[in-house]
Amino acid sequence: MPDKQDNIKTFLESHLATEFVGRQLYQYTTITSTMDVAKELARDGAAEGTVIIANKQTWGKGRAGRAWLSPEGNLAMSIILRPSMENLPQLIMVASLAVVRAIKSVSGLETHIKWPNDVMVKNKKICGILIESEVKGTAINFAIIGIGINVNLNPVAFPEISSLATSLLQELGTEVSRNELCYVVLSELEKLYLEAKAGAPTYKEWQQHMNTLGKSIRVKLGESVEQGIAESVTKGGNLMLRDANGNLTEIIAGDVEIIKD
Ligand code: BTN
Asked: In the prediction, which pLDDT does 152 show?
């Protein structure tokens, strides 16, 4: 159901029952990128769980220096966390699983994860996640999870993404409440983060939602390209790739292209 009043901050302030995620909230009508604002706030000592939401971003950031299209009607937010070095790799899993659960709960739609953290519907991207962190000495000063969900966007109106992206509106044929979606993402994210910190095997559920495993893939990281069968993921979320010679390589980051299902 579309929102009668699209003020996510007001909605979250009266509905969220989280311990710390979303207890401090900033909502902007238009900003360059929620990542920039989050970084500034985090450097100034913002509390763990602070959330920055934008109705529209003019300079949305994607992975690997790419741009992220972020018009009105979509959900664009950044969450400031202060994990230990040990918990940092789990943020990818925590964030993508929170989105998978939230989309299912709010719309009934099944999504899957393309390693490492794209949320997809039938091979089209519905959500992108960007994680940036800053280290101080030997510890993590802060990590920022940026989540962009194509909610009420009509991808056909954006030729630059129309063949690669989908939205909840496009999949369901009806608008979805950004307020409710945001509420569930943040609630699930806190739950998953606390469980991961307590030692839960988050990678198991993450792996179950992944459509990359068992497939013949190509992984690009900068100039380097690896090819093989995506065999499994490690507890820390790295991808184990078996090449044609039977060698197993652990991949930490990269862009996956599925060659054969
Ligand atoms: C990707 O798939 O390339 C990652 C996209 C991440 C987009 C989100 S939208 C909210 C936050 N602010 C940004 O500028 N980027 C992230």
From this structure: 95
Q: What is the pLDDT of residue 6?
A: 60
Between the alpha carbon of residue 92 and those of residues 44, 130, 174, 188, 202, the distances in Å are: 24, 8, 29, 14, 10
d(CA 129, CA 116): 9
Atom of ligand 1 nearest to the CA of 34: 12
For residue range 159-198, list pLDDT tens digits in order: 999 999 999 999 999 999 999 999 999 999 999 999 999 9
Pocket residues: Cβ below 6 A from ligand 1: 33-35, 57, 60-63, 66, 68, 70, 76-78, 118, 128-130, 146-148
Q: Where are the alpha helices (DSSP H) in 21-177?
A: 34-43, 90-107, 168-172
Q: With b meaning 16 or more CB within 10 Å and e meaning fewer, what string describes 42-80?
A: beeebebbbbbbbbebeebbebeeeebbbbebbbbbbbb
| Contact present, 146 and 77 (Cβ < 8 Å) | yes
Residue 58 token pair: 């003019």
pTM for the whole structure: 0.95
pLDDT for the residue 195: 98
Distance 217 CA to ligand 1 centre (A): 24
pLDDT confidence of residue 4 = 47
**pLDDT value at 223 more than 90:** no
Give the position, in ligand 1's atom list, of the atom nearest the Cα of 59.
14
- CA 203 to chain CA mean position, Å: 15
Q: Using CB atoms within 10 A of its CB, is residue 144 exposed (0-12), middle (13-18) or buried (19+)? A: buried
Query: Rounded distance, CA 194 to CA 46, Å?
Result: 19
Dist. CA 34 → ligand 1 center (Å) = 8
Q: Is the peptide bond before 159 cis (omega within 30 degrees of 0)?
A: no
pLDDT at 64: 87
